[in-house]
Amino acid sequence: MVEILTFRQQGKSLDSSGIPTLMDAFVLVVGTDAFLATFLTRIAALVGGAVEAASQLDEVIPLLEKRLPYILILQASLEGSLEFCYQLKQHNQLAGIYCILIEDRPELAHEQTLSDRHRKLALMAEALEKGADAYLQIAPVRRRSAALAQEEIGLQDRLLAAQIQMGLRKVQNYRQLMRTNDLLSTMALSDPLTELNNRRALEWELPRQIQNARSRSIPLSLVMLDVDFFKSINDTYGHLIGDRVLQLLSARLQHNLRFQDTLFRYGGEEFVVILSHTDVQEAPVVAHRLCRLICEQPFRINPTLSLTITISLGTGTLNATDDIKGVNLLQRADQNLLQAKSDGRNRVVSE
User: With contact defined as beta carbons under 8 Å apart, do 313 and 340 qualify?
Assistant: First the structure.
């Protein structure tokens, strides 16, 4: 049975000198009922956000899937805690969680012999080897004067708060780095003018779709298309008008594709559409429909200028001898596109 407790503190954050607070994050504490009874309220008092608790490891993953904590605090003596920490760090989406193991066994905190000392060091080394970010030994305070006991608890809390602070810094930096990487990846795979996937994205996506098509025995086709006489548009009206034509063309294509089709700007005025679940008979049907959609309705560039645009298209369908990267498939679609242009443009040439 898992006990879920939530504490929401409205006081100051861990650090008032600029470290982000935990108001939008939380600490997850996992341990036995006795461990939670000892540490849960102490931890809740140290953070400025939410603290949740679970008493069984098998209930933690569902919690993580709903909401990622910044800090995970595990009872080191809880059965399976070290292996859980290791598995956590192997998971791409969970590896950024800062994992603190708390060793609360009194016999390890108050070692009496050299053997006890060696065992403590071995457990610490194993915890760090398994991926723990920190390993703290915070055992129950021995019976002594109230003043000394309170001082030791204060030092323990100071140490725990420092580790949580460090974890918060590292997780914030890690998540910011991931957001930056995601942004850079999006920028690298996106065409800034049309906001479509670019050629680099096609080079990544096409092999993936080819592998998927072959493993599932489903057809796959391509359409390669080119704007007819695009150079004359730039020469006559200027490159800004040419850019606007590409933007409007991209939008019209995108809005009229099927849900399983993926559109890419291949370069210049050339585009590629991956047609999933589409065989050699169906690909020309899609291509002819796109050809009509472009030529039958003029493009309104601005209030005083409308242009009639046509495109030429070539199709290709995946076969058993094509390479995994799709080079052969692209070449056949490109050859058919060149044939369409040679035959007079504003038409489709298919396999």
Answer: yes
For the chain, the 3-state helix, strand and coil shares in percent, each to the nearest 5, are 50, 20, 30
Catalytic residue among 107, 269, 270, 351: 269
Chain centre distance of CA 48: 27
Residues 77-130: tens digit of each pLDDT: 888 888 888 888 887 778 888 899 888 877 665 656 667 677 778 888 888 888
The residue among 138 and 283 whose pLDDT is bigger is 283
Closest CA to 270 of 313, 302, 217: 313
Please check the confidence at residue 9 and state whether its pLDDT lies above 70. Answer: no
* Residue 45: half-sphere exposure toward Cβ, Cα within 13 Å: 9
What are 246-270's pLDDT values in tens digits?
A: 999 999 999 999 888 999 999 999 9
Residue 52 is a catalytic residue: no
Residue 279 is encoded by which pair of tokens?
């065989």
Amino acid letter for position 54:
A
Radius of gyration in angstroms for the set of CA atoms belonging to the chain, rounded to a whole number = 31
Burial class (CB in 10 A: 0-12, 13-18, 19+), 142: exposed
What is the CA 161 to chain-centroid distance, rounded?
A: 30
- C-alpha angle 230-234-235 in degrees, rounded to nearest 5: 110
